[in-house]
Amino acid sequence: MDFQLSEDQKLIRDTAREFAENELAPLAATFDHEQRFPSEVIGRLAELGFMGMAVPEEHGGAGTDNLSYIIAVEEISRVCASTGVIVSVNNSLVCNPLTKFASDEQKEKFLVPLARGEKLGCFALTEPGSGSDAASLTTTAKKDGDHYILNGAKCFATNGPNADAVLIFATTDREKRSRGIGCFIVEKGTPGFSVGTIEKKMGIRAALSSELILDNVKIPASNRVGEEGQGFKIAMNTLDGGRTGIAAQALGIAQACLDASVRYAKERVQFGKPIADFQAIQWMLADMKTHIDASRLLTYRAAAAKESQSYFGLETAEAKLFAAETAVMCGIKAVQIHGGAGYMRDHPVERHMRDSKITELYEGTSEIQRLVIASNLIKGPRVSKASAK
Ligand code: CAA
Predict the structure, then answer these.
(1) The CATH number, out of the four listed (3.40.50.10330, 3.90.850.10, 1.20.1270.50, 2.40.110.10), of the domain defined by the range 122-229
(2) Nearest ligand 1 atom to alpha carbon 388
């Protein structure tokens, strides 16, 4: 087993780190306080090729391996978890399924500008009545000649207010549950398609999440990705990749908490010595470090599994579960180590603690990750190798 990064992977890590520390760090707290979409840094990320990293170059991407992409999300999230998820959604949840399942025409029209970062994507599965039970969604897509008419509402859609193209999951036949779901591309500006409430959130406040309303939205049938009943499998396969992106985001948040805690523990003097000299603090730091290293191993293994295996849902569920719980634990411990100072708005660990919680919730809660892991143990892989493709 080789734990060394290649020269290319190191170069991408260093580029992402340099960008994050020099260009993103001075703005991250402001983006969070103002709940402002970080358009200026997204433009820079596009220039650096970070918006469609693992997309082949002929489709507008940077053509990197999946691990390089995961490392970039980790480095960006270490400084600004909001920017991390904007990047992750565009790469994992939009560019990835379009690379895998879109037609050549769809790739030319939608994937190329999304992968270049000229346009931004969004993945809309969740609805007010359909969260963990994704197959129960009620947004409908009705065939009308060579068009579909979409009706319904999506919620909590990351990038929703800023997206140029949205992957909408809608049912053509509710009786068939998951087998009746399709995946449709809806462009911003299509009549009947609008952004509803923009949510006020605990964390990742600069990554805007909103309702998306579909009121008799007419789209060409050529905007359907894959076959009519293939949408649920596209969504699940996409989330298997996306969850590794969220594991990387969680890892970045956890690492930021540890870095800040070690620094502070060495500086802060109480009872006549730095608090780093107290075993109570040392044990917290040791637990954070060990969990972070374990999360990184799981996350990098999941990234590699996506490269080499057609089904990688088990590895990705384990990585997301462990890294998310590690991020929350590290957020809480970092604030504890910082004491009252850590509870104050102008200290980054306050933001990191708020940002950490979402990693246990979106792209499948920790309970859903446990369900996927247990199901793999008891019933075997959730899908055969062939059907995961
Ligand atoms: N890959 C491919 N196909 C898969 C699959 C996978 N990983 N997992 C399941 N399938 C297939 C199954 O093989 C099955 O196919 P057949 O009908 O041919 O047998 C079909 O999908 C249905 O599978 P299940 O019966 O297992 O489906 P289920 O209804 O029991 O649901 C679930 C399974 C794991 C609970 C799923 O609903 C799930 O993952 N729920 C969580 C939803 C989620 O993650 N939402 C996140 C929203 S997106 C988001 O957060 C984005 C953002 O803004 C950041």
Answers:
(1) 2.40.110.10
(2) 2
Q: For residue 388, what is the enclosing H or E element?
A: helix 385-388
Residue (of 218, 219, 381) closest to 311 by Cα position: 381
Q: Answer yes or no: is the C-beta of 123 below 6 A from any ligand 1 atom.
A: yes
Report domain extents, the chain.
Answer: 7-120, 122-229, 232-388
131: pLDDT confidence band, cut at 50, 70 and 90? very high
pLDDT of the residue at 188: 98
Whole-model pTM? 0.97
Give residue-wise pLDDT tens across range 321-369. Answer: 999 999 999 999 999 999 999 999 989 999 999 999 999 999 999 999 9
* C-alpha torsion sign, points 140, 137, 316, 20: positive
Would you say the CB of residue 125 lies under 6 angstroms from ligand 1?
yes
Ligand 1, atom 53, lies closest to the CA of 158
Is the minimum distance from the CB of 388 to ligand 1 under 6 angstroms?
yes
Centre of ligand 1 from the C-alpha of residue 201, in Å: 26
Q: Which CATH architecture has domain 232-388?
A: Up-down Bundle (1.20)
In Å, how far are 70, 146, 197, 327 from 249, measured between CA atoms? Answer: 9, 40, 25, 9
Pairing outcome for strands 140-144 and 121-124:
unpaired
Cα separation, 60 vs 39, in Å, equals 20
> 304-331: string of b/e by CB count within 10 Å (b at 16+)?
bbbeeeebbbbbbbbbbbbbbbbbbbbb
Q: Which CATH architecture has domain 7-120?
A: Orthogonal Bundle (1.10)
pLDDT digits (tens, 9 = 90+) for 196-243: 999 999 999 999 999 999 999 999 999 999 999 999 999 999 999 999
In sequence order, the 6+-apart residues with CB closer than 8 A to the CB of 184 are 141, 148, 150, 167, 168, 169, 170, 219, 223, 224, 225, 231
**d(CA 323, ligand 1 centre) in Å:** 21
Tens digits of per-residue pLDDT, 40-82? Answer: 999 999 999 999 999 999 999 999 999 999 999 999 999 999 9
- Total H helices, total E strands in the chain: 14, 10
**Known catalytic membership, residue 363:** yes
313 lines ligand 1 (CB under 6 A): yes
